[in-house]
Amino acid sequence: MRFYEVIDTLDLNSDNYMATVCEGEYAGEKMIVTDGECKWQSSENGFFASHPDAFSVPTGCDLKAVDGVRVFTEKIGKGADLVICGAGHVSMPIISIGKMMGCSVTVIEDRLSFANNAIERGADRVIFKDFESGLEEVEGGKDSYFVIVTRGHRHDMDCLRAISKKPFAYVGMMGSRKRVAIVKKELEEEGLPKEFLESIHAPIGLDIGSETPEEIAVAVMAEIISIKNREKKTKGLYGGLLEALMNEGREPAVMATIISRHGSAPREAGTRMLIWRDGRITGTIGGGCIEGNAIAKGRRMLMEEDHTHAPVTMEVDMSKESAEDEGMVCGGNVELLLEVV
Questions:
Q1: How many Å apart are CA 64 and CA 42, to the nearest integer?
Q2: pLDDT for residue 240 is more than 80
Q3: What is the structure's pLDDT at 188?
Q4: At what angle do helices 213-230 and 91-100 cross, to 10 degrees?
Q5: Quick one: residue 227, left, alpha or beta (phi over 0 = left, psi -120 to 50 = alpha)?
Q6: What CATH number belongs to 81-230?
Q7: Contact yes or no for 30/3 (Cβ under 8 A)
């Protein structure tokens, strides 16, 4: 079984890590660790078999040497699940920005015409049910971001009752301070945990003086980004990349992963991008000369008939001179690991 097929079977609410050998005889060998125990390894008698304790408790996104061999470890996540309760005017730009960010977007709506609007706007999943029933179909998790933008506080309360029973990274509710206070007071009297009620971001979004639906959507998504990045969520294999591999897995591609970063490079270690033979890409590792060099190298790797090119590392220099020549505003340099998958 290929590593991304294993990843698709993982409980992503567990602590899952992947380690990849970057160089030498075992370059490209992988191991997946779940809750401190080996879940899968690509070779039974390879590098990880001879170093069983080196990665039992990974520390996150890290490049380290084991017996002189560099190994890249990263936490496996699926990216942000954006769950929007309500499909009114504000929801539409939230859907659009969420998709631009690479979120998996679910919308719950009990009015057919509004649910159809969410489908047309590009939501990955639209649940046409009342909010309480619809949320029963949403599992929730540590990467789940709930946005409550319904048409009335009765519906807000239905959503909050359901969400309070689920794991989540963020819950935000739109409404005036008076409406928010009424909802919280009534739910506290019902017995909902005070800790949960205090965790709700309401009124929703960063306070940037938003007025139009589009401005409100920017404020909401900016708040979600701030929470997501503050928690240092994984930048690894998730969302669109995993979906693309599962949907197009019969077609070889090159996975480009930033394994180290120095200076002011635009993306962090663990950021990934898929490169297809025709030059298409899924994801981004920062644009400009970083992606240009990676795409060129990746396409050359895919030209080999058997598609078994060994993994390679490459450095992309974004020093002042190089950055100016390429029109880049960042400096520093990154090291990439390129693998045929």
A1: 20
A2: no
A3: 94
A4: 40
A5: alpha
A6: 3.40.50.720
A7: yes
